[in-house]
Amino acid sequence: MKVYGDKRSGNCYKIGLLLKLLGRSYEWVDIDILKGETHTPEFLCKNPNGKIPLIELDDGRCLSESNAILGYLADGTDLVPQDPFEKAQLYSWLFFEQYSHEPKIAVARFIKLYQDMPEDRVAEYETCLEKGYKALGIMESQLLHTRWLVGESMTIADVALYAYTHVAHEGGFNLRDFEGIRTWIERIQALPDYASMEEI
User: What is d(CA 196, CA 6) in angstroms, rounded to the nearest whole number?
Assistant: First the structure.
């Protein structure tokens, strides 16, 4: 299996982290979006949407969209609940991650860390901070009551939301007052097969 991605990207990191946790072998193919490498004819044949992450299976089939990839890779494992309601809760967190969390936490990080806060994006950054803290507050309210986002067992929802949450400080977010999130981050980092962004 090949994974096309950028290790600095949370959306790409979540794929590498899951594969490490599952003990699956893969080949990582570095892609630099800033150099336009997702818009070459060769890459667009694999993903017409021109985005990473992307996995290419041994038979040549390709799959994009980070949370869809998580679902595919974890299907049949303990990281995807069998109970219909718990599975629906899992989907709810995955949709939350892509709609309410990632567009705020990741974008704030990009503006601050990668673009060095250009003047024309300051207002957007401040909006991301406000809405990002709201998303973190929703996670915190859950994690103060349960060990994992879906009850007492880890799922791919935790993998998905960990990816950008654990580097939220790089976007200017202070997790000091988020005890539930900080404990959850420590719990994930203590997993036997855990891998950092640099190690995937």
Answer: 13
